[in-house]
Design goal:
It is built from 4 helices and 6 strands, in the order H-E-E-H-H-E-H-E-E-E. It is of the alpha+beta class.
Length: 159
């Protein structure tokens, strides 16, 4: 089985699992993270950090660069940039560099999640490991749209 077929089957299974949990009557959220911690936080960086780091790699082959740019363009066109990442209306010296809110995909945003798995596969091919976190307790929600929420995590929220 070639790699792309494997990814297609894997994505299909993951989307079915997510839909299954949705049908059980509770909301589940999904976050794609890499091992790196955000500065000043216990939270890990989201997978878009890895994508933009890979994009800046001058040694990236043209085919992968094209696939990466297509993926990022799709997200720019189909996923809103959240308007708020903090419960605080004022930036203080404490939160100038770090915003407390973390982005999570809603489990029923299957098109977005499917595209996220495609991007994760590309990142993995280039040495950027990504982990999937699932939680029904993401924290204090500060922003929400059809595909995602931004939440300041509770102490027991996996980050």
């Amino acid at each position: 089985m070639d790699f792309h077929k494997f990814v297609e089957i894997f994505v299909e299974k993951m989307v079915k699992q997510i839909i299954c949990s949705f049908n059980q009557g509770y909301s589940m959220f999904i976050r794609f993270v890499r091992p790196n911690r955000l500065i000043g936080s216990r939270a890990r960086e989201g997978f878009f950090c890895a994508a933009y780091e890979l994009r800046a790699d001058r040694l990236l082959d043209p085919y992968s660069a094209e696939r990466l740019e297509e993926a990022l363009s799709w997200f720019r066109a189909n996923l809103s940039v959240p308007k708020k990442f903090s419960r605080s209306a004022v930036k203080s010296h404490r939160n100038l560099e770090f915003t407390a809110g973390l982005s999570w995909f809603k489990e029923d945003a299957t098109d977005v999640i499917s595209r996220a798995f495609d991007l994760v596969a590309l990142l993995d091919e280039h040495g950027y490991p990504t982990e999937i976190i699932r939680s029904d307790r993401v924290g204090y929600v500060m922003y929400e749209d059809n595909h995602q929420v931004v939440a300041e995590p509770f102490m027991d929220t996996p980050v």
